[in-house]
Amino acid sequence: MYATYRSLLRVAALLALTVVILGAWVRLTDAGLGCPDWPGCYGQLTVPSLPHEHEAAAAAFPDRPLDPAKARNEMIHRYAASTLGLIVLTMAGLALANRRDPRQPVGLPLVLLALIIFQGLLGMWTVTLLVKPLIVVAHLLGGLSTLGLIFWLILESRHRSAVSAPRSSRRAYAPALLALVVVVVQIALGGWTSSNYAALACPDLPGCLGQWWPGEADWHEAFILWRGLGVNYEGGVLDAHARVAIHFTHRLGALVTFLVVLLVGLRGMRRPSSPGMAGAGRLMLAALLLQLVLGISTVWFGLPLWVATAHNGGAALLLLSVINFNHAASWRTRL
To answer: Among 53, 133, 160, 221, who pairs with 48 as Cys (CB 3.0-4.6 Å)?
Structure first.
């Protein structure tokens, strides 16, 4: 039973990463409202394809004409997320059934199940609240939290199989935790940038609109989190000055993230008391470099869809590498 649980963990991790990337694809193709209802699409469980289904969709949602391509993107994402939910539910059931096995964690699989249920609610609110940026960012962070927790469970299962408890002790490594917090905040800023359609508000590099510091940026409007109900955020509601402020803040966050993760990785690689930290540090720095290149390419080439989607995937990989670094840093060999 524990072997089945571990196999499902690996499947869930790959599917969770896929769901995160598909979510980015949906957002970048403006398909967040491709299906204006939830959990179906124009009143059915598949994208309307027959003439009478198109007529029914037009009658039910006269203000939201059916765009088959956008609806397909949205439903593919929903199918993948629903499949992930079923796998997590199965894992939680296996954990409970196998709770007497000392290798089997129970608390975290149940937390994972609660998280994915809440993530489903965020997916619903993303549609019903008309892609409100605050909900979109929460949905992004929920998806990455799901992925990160699954990955942590994989790391834990491998460690329990490979290392005997008497040979190692455990304690959190503060710089690694700092790197994790900084990366999460930067991902949230990236989600805020994307959900407010500010990805190209500063189309030049390394400055912004020909300046090192954009004087016309509207910092107050940029970070109003809640603007009430009933506002359709598709296409964005902010003016250019607010979008410049959002984009430039994301760039500043990228600089801080680069410096923090770089310094933490280099410092951590010199800690001989924690097995595996050198390799984990190298992976983290490689993911950091990849994400930096993708971020620059997103602006430099004018937000091509595949690069922007890869930038979201790169954020997920950077997060996983920092989680892996934290896991390696928390185990210390007893000398």
So the answer is: 53
